Amino acid sequence: MSATGKVLAIASILLGCVSPCFAKGNGPAAFDKIKSLSGEWVGKDPDGLPATITYHVTSGDTAILETLKPGKHPEMLSVYHLDGDHIMLTHYCSRNNQPRMRVEDYDPASDKMVFEFKDVTNVGPNDSGHINGLVVKFPDKDHLVQEWSWKEGSDQSSSVFQFERKK
Q1: Digit-coded pLDDT (tens) for 27-67
Q2: What are the phi and psi torsion angles at 54 (to 5°)?
Q3: CA dist 35 to 2, 53, 65, 121, 135, Å?
Q4: Is residue 16 part of a domain?
Q5: Cα dihedral sign, 104-154-145-166
Q6: Whole-prediction pTM value?
Q7: Which residues form the domain of 60?
């Protein structure tokens, strides 16, 4: 085989590997999992106060609205949508900022989804803190656990919410 033939053979192997070798995300499966939460959920906030969360599929099944009413704190909205083979989340916080997070790799067989911080809008030099991560756990079809991560300056904390599907 000539040198050119060898280069073409190696290139075709590498190009054939691009999709399967680097495929991650599994966004459609993650999006379907979040869609399955559609409806109202009741539970407790981290302080043990009553909290609710609702999921509404909208925009021709291309977006999911999550409305979180966490105990004594103001209501907040998160919007989930696909971004290629990943699922994105924009959280519209009561602190007037909008962190964006993305699931890099989702295994449908797992019972959790990890949203990693990408960026945040509307944060000035005196940032009063923002959400910087979310882990959603699915113990079963009628229970949901959310662990929100919070960053303020160099401090990091988290808040866990536990919900049950309203029947």
Answers
A1: 999 999 999 999 999 999 999 999 999 999 999 999 999 99
A2: -125, 150
A3: 54, 13, 10, 26, 16
A4: no
A5: negative
A6: 0.83
A7: 24-165
